[in-house]
Amino acid sequence: MKTLDNKINLNAFVNGLKSTKGNFEQLYQEFYDYLKGFKTKEDDVILTIVLPMLNEEKTIKAILESLPYDNSIEIIVVNDHSTDNSLKEIEKVKLNRKIRVINHKLNRGYGRAIISGISQAKGEVIVTIDSDGQHSPDDIFNLVKPIFEGDADYTIGSRYKGTYFYKLPVFTRVGEVIVEKLIQLLFGPKVVNNQTGFRAFNRKVVPILNNTKYPGYAYCTEQILRVSILGFKIKECPIKVYSRQFGSSKIVLRILAGRIFSCIIYYYIQKIKFMMKRTKRISSL
Questions:
Q1: Contact 59, 246 (CB under 8 A)
Q2: Could you tell me which of 246, 259, 254, 198 has the C-alpha nearest to residue 55?
Q3: Tell me: the pLDDT tens digits for 66-121?
Q4: Domains in the chain and their CATH numbers?
Q5: Pair 63, 136: CB distance under 8 Å
Q6: Residue 112 Cα to chain centre, angstroms
């Protein structure tokens, strides 16, 4: 893990690529070639990228223009009732790529925005990535490769296995450690960066994630618990995380903490019920 305090952001990454006269096609060529190996037909959609969006007019265009895209990949933006110019910025996106936009007529929360996207995804593997400019799209390969190769069913991007370019608040790290230890103690998997929205999962996991009791940001924790209870393989993968250049986080930590602990308690009870039912079925054979 490497921590840097010079506040590098996604725009710096994009501008740096342009300044070297590079382009995203070159950057992602290895990725495109890799995906071709999993296609049975030329027009197969292998990968879906889902971006939940709420008032991200300053970042959404740069993110969409920096995503990998060929005919193996579809991009879905879920607009969770943005009130700024986010939709207009999407219309300005350059490059030849189709972007599907799902509009919520009311703000339904982060979790339900994710569900709207993954429920309509066509890809065999699905990636979720936030729209605030803190994630680097070129890390998508790191997340999906273990799934395509059968090493994981569900992957989580971790700044602690990769790099983060900002000073992390102490209370944020303390909160993550507490949640990490509770999940490990009660559910099994050790997930250090347990609140990141940069994730990937096999299509077979989608039915498990297609509803929620925690429609806000606690849905990140809820996903981990649902997947772990049913025994799917979870893996953390290295990513880069940038400082937020525009706007501020929409998370209220006090509320989020309460909902995360409520989520853990609820799903631990569900785990016990699930295990009791399984034991009963086995004993009746």
A1: yes
A2: 246
A3: 999 889 999 999 999 999 999 999 999 977 778 999 999 999 999 999 999 999 99
A4: 7-168+189-209+232-248 (3.90.550.10)
A5: no
A6: 13
